[in-house]
Design brief:
single chain; 387 residues; alpha/beta; 31% helix; 20% strand; globular
């Protein structure tokens, strides 16, 4: 058996008697408040041969079936261990006055910084709706394995640079009445946006402190930047995080934290990038933003019904693609994705390959990508084609 690890941040309530020794996390928010964040590390054992087969499996639009791999990791939850990073905080002091060594976030950020210093990548992943804790862990581990499959394979000593996925697990899944799970998750996603915003502010402050310290020592901070990937309703979590992040940033400007932001099967309105709408300023946070959408996505019609029949970014793309900011690119996956993974295509085949190429810094218009421009001729609107 081999082992792999996954960093996480969550505002879910812990399972088990002790918060620092959880057996998992539930669908309800933390008892300390929706914005309360806990950090930790999941270690899980798996069969290397089985994982290799899933990484080589033809998903219908390329090698690598992340959907099957996600279910496999979920089934291995009995072989997992959770290491919650403990905190010892004073209730009388503000968070900014707490000793950094007592913050679980500081431990997570410093360990990830060490990995970036060695040349590896870090990607924050915000999952979609109707996922319990272990399903979210399985999806994040699947994404991590898929992104690393061309660089030596999971656990390979020759694997460099690796992508380390950090799961942001917000309350969803495990509903007693499945029919209402979507509406419940939508409400939790909105308030969890404030928790994600708080996490982004923590990350911003850590990076500013680390950069200041590095400058005083005449050192560089790290070798690789940070990425963000949001799937489905995870994009709605991000939408609500932006308000909180801007509110506590100098001049209300969003901080440049990421190299790439990937919006996959986004369950938000198609006009979200228009002036005055929530994502109009999203590009301030990254060097590039990429929208992946699928016109045959089976979950989007039901989402539109729940939202009053508004068009969704994850099905039709941006309402006015010609007016997208220069740093925002749109990729239509409709010609390729099919079958049972028409909504979770971000961790499968050619779409996952395209994401990894962006992480590695490949230009959007590179001939090595399996993309072609649309017939409209817009320079930042593409469609994936069979390579």
């Amino acid at each position: 058996m081999a082992t792999t690890q996954l960093y996480y941040a969550t505002n879910r309530h812990h399972r088990g008697r002790e918060r620092w020794k959880p057996t998992g996390y539930g669908p309800e928010p933390s008892e300390d408040g929706t914005e309360n964040l806990r950090f930790g590390l999941v270690t899980i054992r798996y069969d290397h041969a089985k994982v290799t087969r899933y990484l080589e499996d033809d998903c219908g639009f390329g090698a690598g079936n992340g959907e099957k791999l996600s279910r496999y990791f979920y089934d291995q939850r009995g072989k997992a261990a959770i290491n919650a990073f403990t905190e010892n905080l004073s209730r009388e002091a503000n968070e900014s006055d707490q000793p950094r060594r007592k913050l679980g976030s500081s431990r997570a950020f410093s360990e990830l910084q060490a990995k970036m210093n060695s040349g590896d990548h870090v990607l924050i992943f915000v999952h979609g709706p109707n996922m319990n804790w272990w399903q979210a862990v399985g999806s994040a581990l699947s994404l991590q394995c898929m992104l690393n499959r061309h660089s030596g394979g999971e656990g390979s000593p020759n694997q460099s640079p690796r992508v380390h996925v950090v799961l942001f697990a917000w309350p969803s899944g495990d509903r007693e009445i499945p029919h209402w799970s979507y509406f419940s998750d939508h409400t939790d996603a909105k308030v969890s946006g404030y928790a994600l915003g708080r996490g982004l502010l923590k990350l911003r402050d850590y990076l500013l402190h680390a950069r200041s310290l590095a400058r005083r020592k005449g050192e560089s901070l790290y070798g690789q930047p940070i990425q963000l990937l949001c799937h489905s309703m995870g994009n709605y979590v991000l939408q609500n995080a932006l308000e909180r992040t801007a509110k506590f940033s100098a001049g209300g400007r969003l901080p440049r934290i990421f190299q790439q932001i990937f919006l996959c099967a986004a369950d938000v309105a198609a006009d979200v990038f228009q002036p005055g709408e929530p994502f109009h300023r999203l590009a301030e946070m990254a060097e590039a933003v990429t929208i992946y959408h699928n016109r045959r996505d089976p979950t989007m019609p039901s989402s539109e019904y729940a939202k009053g029949a508004s068009d969704r970014l994850g099905r039709d793309g941006a309402e006015w693609p010609a007016y997208l900011p220069d740093r925002v690119h749109q990729v239509d996956c409709s010609q390729l994705v099919s079958g049972l993974i028409e909504h979770s295509y971000y961790h499968c085949g050619a779409v996952n390959d395209d994401i990894r190429q962006s992480i590695e810094g490949m230009p959007q218009d590179s001939r090595d990508r399996t993309r072609e421009p649309t017939r409209h001729g817009w320079p930042n609107v593409w469609r994936l084609v069979d390579g």
